[in-house]
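note to self: dont lose this again. the chain is below, predicted strucutre after it. 259 aa total, dont forget to put it in the shared folder this time
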Amino acid sequence: MDSPTLLDTYLKQLCLPTFSQQYRRLAADATRTQASYEQFLLTLVEQEILTREQHRLQRLMRAARFPVVRDLADFDFAAIPSVNQQQIHTLSQGHYIPAAESVLLIGNPGLGKTHIASGLALAACKQGYRVRFYTAAALVNDLLQAQAEHRINRFMTQALKYQLIVLDELGFIPLSTVGAQLLFQFCSGLYERVAVMVTSNLRFADWTQVFGDERLTAALLDRLTHKAHILEFIGDSHRIRQRMQQERRGLVPDVAGDA
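---
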């Protein structure tokens, strides 16, 4: 077996695929530029690490199950002045995650709560944290199914493997009595163990509309607001304002007459 073939075999055994793919090209570059052996090896190792980091991020993003990937860099903070940009920048550094603290995004619809939550969750993935993104309704459906199949404990054990769990659109639809109880038990199980992020169109005082039980709602809020970072979104829907501006400029046809 010649040296290149033997080297490829050893690199495969060592699980160094980027080494195998790049060493010929980088060796030719090193010869041309008269780079030292150390510089050649350093460049090769850097390529391996970069590729592994990219693959790890891709795996974390798939596991998170984002409905849509949104980046904080794409958020128009100027359009939503009530949003505390500095607070969001601080949260994007992820210090709340190992501390298992909550982030609560509360306010009117159409102001970017889901975008910010997705962006913060994406930032967490980039830092290597294990993230899971749910809509509240989808999570409750999963909990109900897990209970019906007698695997609720296994579901909870799996949830505890994540470091950040996002519950989007809490309050979008009211929950059944059993669904509300299961969601309470789920959040209680995460308390001080896993960071939780929640978006809701409802003020805290109105959460009873979702859970249907004042005592259960109070107990849940007690856990979620303990050591919580609360972001308030105030104003009119950014999406509606955008559409009205487009209609005034003639960019969106008036379809009211088609109803």
